[in-house]
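User: Can you recover a sequence for this backbone? Please restate the input before giving your answer.

Assistant: Of course. Working from this structure:
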């Protein structure tokens, strides 16, 4: 059985969050423009100084601070459960995600070459084909991410996006 969704139930103290920040890294190049490789044959990385820096930060939570939807404590994470292969677990998870999408009624269009997005005017999710993703899980993650935007429409959850997707009104 796939793991159940995790949320903050509101019954316990609000989880404390930690802020993470990332910098841009790129392959180190030699004088001929070819990647410089380390001892393992992987490209060496260097920090890139951008003309217009992009700052991205993320709020992360310790799983011990979260609960399941029914308010029960989150069970401890098990790296590998005996008797359940990753493939079997992924099949179950994908089936569950596909059922969520099917029950939602969202229209999904596989009509993109590079970008995934929720289109307000077309009332659907636009994705690159599943085969374009390195792993099936990445495809499903992108689909569920865009579905999150889709749910914010006034016809569904009615979140306000006039102040931007990352502001307080949208996240209510």
């Amino acid at each position: 059985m796939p793991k159940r969704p995790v949320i903050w139930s509101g019954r316990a103290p609000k989880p404390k969050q930690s802020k993470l920040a990332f910098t841009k890294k790129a392959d180190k190049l030699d004088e001929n423009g070819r990647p410089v490789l380390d001892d393992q044959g992987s490209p060496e990385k260097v920090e890139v100084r951008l003309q217009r820096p992009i700052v991205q930060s993320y709020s992360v939570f310790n799983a011990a601070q979260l609960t399941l939807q029914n308010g029960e404590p989150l069970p401890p994470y098990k790296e590998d459960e005996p008797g359940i292969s990753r493939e079997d677990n992924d099949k179950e998870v994908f089936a569950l995600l596909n059922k969520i999408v099917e029950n939602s009624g969202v229209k999904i269009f596989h009509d993109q070459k590079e970008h995934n997005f929720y289109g307000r005017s077309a009332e659907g999710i636009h994705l690159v084909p599943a085969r374009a993703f390195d792993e099936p899980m990445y495809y499903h993650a992108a689909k569920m991410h865009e579905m999150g935007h889709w749910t914010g429409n006034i016809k569904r959850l009615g979140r306000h996006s006039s102040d931007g997707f990352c502001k307080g009104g949208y996240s209510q």
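That completes the design. The CA atoms of residues 23 and 90 lie 31 Å apart.
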